[in-house]
Design the sequence.
């Protein structure tokens, strides 16, 4: 475990989380024309996500785990507070799914994303709660509500700016990479 000073608070992190924080610092401090590239394993990203959600909880999201596959394909396992989603925007969860998508539960969502000129868009390939397939349109609505409640106020109906001035992000088997 390493200790970092983040926003004036002591932030205890795993080695992977510490490496991610160092990468973020490197990306932030890069000169405008300086090229910075990286590759991270899904294990490093998942370790960081655990630490990040402890330090900065996200509205409606309790945990996230990702798996990376080639060609900008990712699987996410996310603990979502469906009651909060429905409270924030009534009707976001289709009535036929309300008996199962309530409380805090984990859903599996596979996405394929594209990045262009520093922005990302994505399509939902498939989504499940246990063995129940969730329609992509329903997941898109849920994601829009969750994204709008985050401090960054994302609008997932439009291209989302990549963080830290990144221009491109891609995936390989168990890896994610990017460049500024």
Sequence:
């Amino acid at each position: 475990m390493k200790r970092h000073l983040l926003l004036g608070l002591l932030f205890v992190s795993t080695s992977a989380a510490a490496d991610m924080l160092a990468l973020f610092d490197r990306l932030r401090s890069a000169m405008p024309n300086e090229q910075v590239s990286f590759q991270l394993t899904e294990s490093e990203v998942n370790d960081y996500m655990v630490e990040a959600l402890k330090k900065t909880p996200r509205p409606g999201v309790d945990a996230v785990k990702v798996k990376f596959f080639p060609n900008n394909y990712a699987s996410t396992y996310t603990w979502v507070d469906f009651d909060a989603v429905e409270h924030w925007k009534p009707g976001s969860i289709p009535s036929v799914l309300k008996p199962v998508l309530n409380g805090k539960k984990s859903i599996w969502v596979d996405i394929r994303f594209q990045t262009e000129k520093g922005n990302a868009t994505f399509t939902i390939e498939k989504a499940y709660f246990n063995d129940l397939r969730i329609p992509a349109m329903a997941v898109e609505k849920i994601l829009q509500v969750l994204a709008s409640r985050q401090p960054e106020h994302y609008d997932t109906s439009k291209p989302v700016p990549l963080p830290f001035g990144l221009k491109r992000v891609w995936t390989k088997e168990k890896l994610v990479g990017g460049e500024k």
User: Anything to note?
Assistant: The longest helix spans residues 15-29. The helical segments are 15-29, 42-55, 82-88, 136-149. The CA atoms of residues 88 and 145 lie 7 Å apart. Residues 10-179 form one domain.
